Amino acid sequence: MGVLTIKQYEKTGILSLNDLTLPSDEHLNKGVAIIECVQEIPCDPCVGICSVNAISMKNINAVPKIDYDKCTGCKRCVGICPGLAIFVIKLKDDKALITLPYEFLPIPKIEEIVTALDREGKPRGKAKVVKVNKSNKTTVVTIEVDKDIIMEVRNIRMD
Amino acid sequence: MTVDNIPNIRTCITPLDENIRVNEQDKAGKLPEDEFCDKKRKKINADIVIVGSGPAGLMAAISSAKQGVPSILLVDENHLIGGQLVKQSHKFFGSEEEKAGTRGIDLAFELMDEVNLLKNIKSMLETTIIGCYNSKQSHKLIAIKRQREGNQLIEIICKSVIFACGAMENMLAFPGNDLPGVYGAGGVQTLMNVYGVKPGNKVLMVGAGNVGLIVSYQLLQAGVSVDRVVEILPKIGGYNVHAAKLRRCGVPINTSHSIKEVYGNEKVEGAIVEKIDSSFKPISGTQQDVTCDTVCIAVGLTPSIRLLEQIGAKTEFIAEAGGHVAIHDSSMQTSIKGIYVAGDSSGIEEASTAMIEGQLAGVSAAVSLGFDKQAKKLKKKYIKALEGFRSGPFGLKPKICKEKIACCWNGGINY
């Protein structure tokens, strides 16, 4: 039944950058959504919510494809994704903004300093909360971090 | 277990009451006749009875009601409508049509409202079907409704029954598995999300399928620490997105690892986990001691088919279904005319497909009673949607399951 090799992320649950299609610096300057959803699972709400048709899928099981040219970084997909697998990244001078879904209490407050965590839950420095939105009980939080860790930081911890 | 002398009760889902008598049951159950014989057996008639009000049962009720069936009775042994939906605090996957992006609990309320608006559906909660019999013209179900003033014995006569009874959690055999603190993951989810009870402070999760991953994440949300998830297979069985959520909160997932034993003085105090080789044998010297007060077992589900067996529906063992299931045709009808099955009872899958199967069964049952509002078109749509869900790699198991069921239905040639 198919190929028997097991991918690294299937063993660990952690995606590497090689598993993803990354945007260019130009795209990052404008701010775009990065979809960390690499398996064919039957799910498509991100396609429906995108107002500029930047996300497409051939069928309900297909892996979502994002057109970074079309994406405006509006963040609506961040709150709808049932897998909490979409992040919006935007470069801002020597800093960067990461928008991520957060489903824990207490809800972060603007200006609060939190710990930025990577895909393994390891602390990668401090981050400042700059924006907080709610979408169907998923808090969509935008944090400001150093530019060099934008592809690592995917979670926050309130200290 | 027996509760107040009533046999075959799942105590894990029975609300505790003052003066309740819970006993072990080590033989076939017998109803306490004295307790009921002087009470009047209440008789109820219905066109369609739906057993189970989870996603499959609810959709079966709604879809048959919309076809115009005059009297539909929705029966559930729990005190809430919605089955497992009521404890699903995460957003559902799937397509917009199947309410993707909606949380299970919100979906339960949405569907509950829809059921309440449909005057031809009557729902009866805290009611357990304890027997079912079929004759040529009609079917008879015996039920017990639990109520404050005493249990009521009910006889239901109906033309059609849809069994949407769901499934039960599998258990694992290991030393110490009977210590308080060893739970099914679904049981822990019910405690947390339905009753608001914290199951423990530090959890070891066994099984990295979607249930194990999702319940681990919900434990974190409830403020419970999860030490790690162990998975005997070399890869994570659930969706990567669920695993990733857990990993970025710092919870390790150890694949090719299993639980050896649980220890503790009268309650769980810790567990021994060990690495497993490619032939599933423990590797010596790899044992690790995990300090925890709760062990959650999330190693799959078995379809609940006892009522279907009792009524005489033909069953088969199908590994991909999770155990024995009643075989059924493409309309979800079993080998007995007028008896339908839907959802996990017809093979373990998930909520979206359970909803579609429920609709398929509901419309099919309605048609057989002469109520038809574009039923053919609807059935075609449902079958197509099911095929869509089962066409991806995660739908492979249910796809094979349904192919085997179809094969058995067509005479049971070797598969």
Q: What is the structure about, briefly put?
A:
By secondary structure, chain A is mainly beta. Chain A has one domain. Chain A is built from 4 helices and 9 strands.
Features:
heterodimer, A: 159 residues, mainly beta, 7-stranded antiparallel beta sheet, two-stranded antiparallel ribbon, 4 helices, 13% helix, B: 415 residues, alpha/beta, FAD/NAD(P)-binding domain, 2 domains, 7-stranded mixed beta sheet, 5-stranded parallel beta sheet, 10 helices, 21 strands, 27% helix, 25% strand, globular
What this model shows, in words?
- The complex is a heterodimer of chains A (about 160) and B (about 425).
- Chain A has about 160 residues and is mainly beta.
- Chain A is built from four helices and nine strands.
- In chain A, a hairpin with a 2-residue loop joins strand 7 and strand 8.
- With about 425 residues, chain B is an alpha/beta fold.
- Chain B folds into two domains: about 240 residues, 3-Layer(bba) Sandwich (FAD/NAD(P)-binding domain); about 130 residues, 3-Layer(bba) Sandwich (FAD/NAD(P)-binding domain).
- In chain B, about 25% of the residues lie in helices and about 25% in strands.
- In chain B, strands 3, 4, 5, 6, 7, 8 and 21 form a seven-stranded mixed β-sheet that branches.
- Classes of the chains: A mainly beta (about 160), B alpha/beta (about 425).
- At the A-B interface, helix 1 of A face helix 6 of B.
The major beta sheet of chain A can be summarized as: 7 strands, antiparallel
Number of helical segments of chain A?
Answer: 4
CATH class of the largest domain in chain B: Alpha Beta
Helical fraction of chain B: 25-40%
